[in-house]
Amino acid sequence: MAKWELTSRLGKFLDRHLVLTLLEFLSSNQIYDEKELLLGKLEMLKNTNMIDFAIDVYKKLYPDQTLPAEFFENRQRVVAELKELETQTQPVLAILVQDDVSQQIATTRDSRQLFDYLKVNHGLTSEMVDSLYKSAKFQYECGNYSGAAQYLSSHRLLVSPNDKNYLSNLWGKLASEILMQQWENALEDFNRLRDYIDNYPYFTPLQLLQQRTWLIHWSLFIYFNHTQGKDMLIDMFLERKAPFQKQQQPYLNAVQTICPHIIRYLTTAVITHRRRREYMKELVKVIQQESYTYRDPITEFVECLCVNFDFDGAQKKLRECVDVFNNDFFLIALQDEFIENARLFVFEIFCQIHECISINMLADKLNMTPEEAERWIVNLIRQARLDAKIDSKLGHVVMGTQAVSPYQQLIEKTKAMAIRCHVLTMNIEKRLQTPERAQWGVTEI
Amino acid sequence: MSSRFFKPQFDSESESDESETDIQPQRPAPAVTTAYAFSDEEEETKRVVRTEKEKRYEELGAYIKQLKNHMKIKDISKMLTGFENLTKGFLKAKPVIEKEENGITPRFYIRCLVELEDFIADVWEDREGRKNMSKNNSKSLATLRQKLRKYNKDFESEILMYRENPDEAKDEEEEDDESVESDDGSENRFLTKAAKVKDDLKLDDDKDFDLGKDDVSKSKFLKSAASDDEKESDESDWGSSDEESSSSEDYENQEGAAFRFLKKETGETKESKKRERKMKERKEGGKRKVEDDEEGEWERVTRGGIIGEKPKMFTKDEEITHVSVVKKLGEILAMRGKKRIHRSDQIEMLTELLEISEAHKLGPAMRIKIIFGIIAALLDYNTNMSSCMKPEMWEKCLEFCNRLVETLIAHPEIAIGENIAEESESFNNPTFRVHGCALTLIERMDEEFTKILQATDAHSPDYIERLKDEKKVCYIIERLQCYLETDQRGTSSELCRIYILHIDHLYYKFDTQVFEQKKRKNLKNAADTNGFQKIEIVIADKDENVEDNEEFKETSLDLMNKMCKYIYAKDNTDRIRTQAILCHIYHHALHDNWFEARDLMLMSHLQHNIHKSDIPLQIIYNRALVQLGLCAFRHGNIKDAHSDLLDIQILGRAKELLAQGLLPKQQERTPEQEKLEKRRLLPFHKHINLELLECVYLVSAMLLEIPDVAANEYSVRKKMISRSFYNQLRKNEEQPLVGLPESMREHVVAASKAMRVGNWKACRDFIINDKMNSKVWNLFHQPDKVREMLVQKIREESLRAYLFTYSHIYDSISLLILAEMFDLEKATVHSIISKMIINEELMASLDEPTQTLIMHRTEPSRIQGLSLQLADKVNTLVEHNEKTWELKQNTFGSQSNRMFGGNRDQQGYQRQDRGYMDRNRDQRRTSQYRTNQ
């Protein structure tokens, strides 16, 4: 079932180290040839400094061959470089741990100010700051993410947002946090990065689009691991910002132009969301619009249900969805939740348009046995989420009629009117009495 | 005589002088004046380019003329000032004379001095007369005499020379005197002549001037070649006579027979005889030229350059080298825009030069250089922007363009470019360098081609004849593109330009291969996914060769993709990019690539700012939009089709908006505006069928509107989806008697009526029948597919209309029966009804076990409906009250109110301003666009 597998698509927009985690997942899933995966992994590791990891992979791949010499050379090179960088960064770190400095850090908000202070008092140079960044990068390459994160947070204190390394710093920090699975920190970094990207004035539109695309992909790690991730995911794509904003829904735009496969995650998030109905309409629009560039069982499910009202088709797609979920790094944990919600969603729509449904048919549509279905419906009715009755003799569910009579409509329409008029007259009366007082007020001043 | 106002300054002066001399010439017939007006204007335009020398000489000429006039009336004080002016003018002209004539004082100047001297001497001798003179005059006389004597000392030798040989100047004097019409007749020998010319003068100053000259030239031509030459040079000395001759030539060429006819009536038969003779002489000249050609000695009998030596071809013994040819070329090119040079002569000479250079094997670089000159001359042939080239000219132009490109491709070692300075050109080294830009010339040629097509009647065989050249033009462009692409010869901006030129010839053309390729791809995909590899292999075996060949064959779509992408990436002028995007959209839409076209349209954000761009671009935008609409229709996206076509169709100005014709009587247009609009018109072969457009629009409107009408029968708030569709409906209803539908519109209206009651079969028959097929549907690429789609849509929408209209009659309907009634699948019916229920359009619900639709008694009765409306209205009343209150309450109420008003004003302005854009495609519209998906 490699058809709906997205790793190759996602990988284009992820960092090497992040892709590694995806590959790990894939090898545990065994939908691809293990050997090919390992080869891919090895290729990937060649450009990092994680020599030991590479050696492991190599050994797995060719258990009976001796290690090529280049591994050892590389390791030596890496170690040497690491040492050199450490000596370079040592002075900076030494400065930063001093008491007065940490005090200063706590008090000053502006990085410029801090840098100036350190320059004057401790002889800090911009080269030193840059070396700090370099060694952070090196640590990251070696797979020492916590070290990298530490260095990077120190580095960020010292550079202004206009520094050439500032953006890279943010990205690096985010990657490190994600790889350490510190979701709270990662979220913080993510928001910082997002603000920066959205407000940085010097990106060309193309660069902006690229940055956003990357951000979207990286954010998947956070969104599907953080407890409130799904809300945020939906917010990011579907919430309309204030109308004066120049570009509405820039992230959705990025998805539509570059990476329509993200729609899968969006769809999942919306369906499992408790307030899904608000977002459904918008989502359907997006899905339909992009249907020619991207479709998978999840989007097709929504399409069947909300566009064609083809319940049989939806049922079929829902079954296919299970496979998709099993093979998706981000979604695998959500499978049950999704299936349950999808079922409920189908049922909701079903109830909306039907008056009388046979339980057998419903069970079929919901992918349940009739007994299960009956129990399920009974539960729904008991929880007062459904205005319906079960006709057990015929095996039907009969919906409560929700039609509104014209009289009712008329009453509804005119009900508020009296109150509104009343309020209006009250206001006017008040106004009629107040003018004199207001005038007094003015004259007093 | 309004034409007088256009006359150059000194002409009118001379005229006023003329009237001073009491000869009031009879005014010629008005027809003649207009003819003159034309030539005068010509003069005016040509005057713009003028050498310093010409200007100075003209000035001097004017002074001399004035002086002579004063001489005749013996106004000596004025003569004095005139003389002073003259000397000043001469001083000014001195540097030029130094440069151009090697410091030899022009003969006419000397002559003037001599005459003046004689005159002064005469007057001085005449003691009687001197006594009678006014005090002022006698004083001036003395001063003038002194001054002149002093001044003439500088020119002693020249004056002496002139006096030795005064005969030569006789003709000129004659000429001059004629022009000023001396009654005085200070020299007896002219008296007869003057008398004869007098009649001529009655016609007009200009004319008789050139007539006089005709006389002269007649006599001149009979003289030897040597004197011919001299005459030429003398003539050129005479700024004013130059002009006259060229203007006379002009009208001869342009006005032709008609003018001559008029002339005959007014003038004497003598004149026409003269003219005939002159013509003959010209022919003789031509013959002589031919002979010369044969001898290899080129001597042109053109009217000569102003430089004094006429640009003639090489003499026999002259060595023909690169340098000399370049020099000659420069001379010929310098003739451009000068008055007496006819452009066709210039072209001929250039062609000759080309032949010479070929004959002497001066190499390809030289050839290119000369061809550049020829093409430029050909393109310059017409001074009038709006008129087009003559067919012969065009063919020549095409041929030379072709030759240019051929040479360029054959000799890749030649570097051409605008940045290569003329000085650094090299024609004989192996690294040839030539100044000039082939691209610009080709661009202009292309423009000219469009102009020719515009000027040709689209329904005549001529048009087809011309259109055949399209292929050649494309070929030239393609090859030039190839040339520029290889070895990175062209800069990116040049490449963008040639690409857009190519795109412009490509985007509207339909390429069936695109569809074939698509089909193949689909087949392959299907085979792939189904795993029927056997079948694939069989297919592959069967037409392996064909497939392979065709797969690698570039379709126009691929070509467009390639070029447009290059432009998107490299272009830095926004205009070319926009044009490329629009053409790309058009091409995609033409080939049914709906999604690509749509996305490109949405991504480009052109809807927002297209109305800021220039009109030709807006026209392309409109075309792209229309094509997009048609494409959407073919794909069954009725809503999109409607919204795309709405902008173009709503005002019924599609023809104008697409630049496919002018509307007969719109708001007042000045002739210039009209000319401009005419120039914008697209050639016929690029047109989009307007009837098809309208039909597609109306049918889409019908499919959207009719169910809507049915649903909102009682509602007051019903929004009109398409106004022009309503107009059609209303027109139909206004008719006292509705017959069988004839036109396309009537068909659609009849179909709408059928759909309104859910009679889908009738509706289908009205929309799809032989008449409509031949008129509209067969114009699509795959008409059967479109018809199929259309029938399906008609069924669906009829079902909706039916349910809306008759649901209150039913208590329940079986889905099966509905499906049968509308010949639809049950699933489709189910889906349609479900959608209606979800959207709360239909108050009903489905009964699953029995497969029926159960109506809820919600369709209000008449009285209920009305009371609901009443409630609505009262509600709005309350709302208004509240709003008013809020406004009053608000301290800034008045301010915001004003702002609101201001906005509205602005909107109104925009609407007026829109012109070709018609409807404001604002944010709201785009969002609508997106929601419609």
TrEMBL record, chain A:
Q: Where is the PCI domain?
A: 225-404
Its annotated compartments are:
Cytoplasm
Query: Biological process (GO) annotations?
Result: formation of cytoplasmic translation initiation complex
| A GO cellular component entry from the record | eukaryotic 48S preinitiation complex
Q: Tell me the domain of life.
A: Eukaryota
Q: Does the keyword Protease apply?
A: no
UniProt xrefs under Pfam families: eIF3_N, EIF3E_C, PCI
Q: Which UniProt keywords apply?
A: Cytoplasm, Initiation factor, Protein biosynthesis
Grouped into one coarse class, the protein's main location is cytoplasm
What Gene3D superfamilies does its record include?
A: Winged helix-like DNA-binding domain superfamily/Winged helix DNA-binding domain
Molecular function as annotated in GO: translation initiation factor activity
What does the subunit comment say?
Answer: Component of the eukaryotic translation initiation factor 3 (eIF-3) complex. The eIF-3 complex interacts with pix. Interacts with mxt.
Q: Which family does it belong to?
A: Belongs to the eIF-3 subunit E family.
Q: What does this protein do?
A: Component of the eukaryotic translation initiation factor 3 (eIF-3) complex, which is involved in protein synthesis of a specialized repertoire of mRNAs and, together with other initiation factors, stimulates binding of mRNA and methionyl-tRNAi to the 40S ribosome. The eIF-3 complex specifically targets and initiates translation of a subset of mRNAs involved in cell proliferation.
- What is the protein name given in its UniProt record? Eukaryotic translation initiation factor 3 subunit E
The record lists the organism as Dinothrombium tinctorium
Automatic annotation (TrEMBL), chain B:
Q: What is its main location?
A: cytoplasm
Superkingdom of the source species: Eukaryota
Q: Which PROSITE patterns match?
A: PCI
Q: Which GO terms describe its molecular function?
A: RNA binding; translation initiation factor activity; translation initiation factor binding
Q: Where is this region: Disordered?
A: 1-30, 161-191, 223-293, 893-933
Q: Would the keyword Protein biosynthesis be found if you checked this record's keyword annotation?
A: yes
- Where are the compositionally biased (Acidic residues) regions? 12-21, 169-185, 227-253
Keyword annotations for this protein?
Answer: Cytoplasm, Initiation factor, Protein biosynthesis
Supply the InterPro entries for this chain.
EIF3C (IPR027516), EIF3C_N_dom (IPR008905), EIF3CL_C (IPR058999), PCI_dom (IPR000717), WH_DNA-bd_sf (IPR036390)
What is the name of this protein?
A: Eukaryotic translation initiation factor 3 subunit C
Organism encoding this protein: Dinothrombium tinctorium
The text of the family note is: Belongs to the eIF-3 subunit C family.
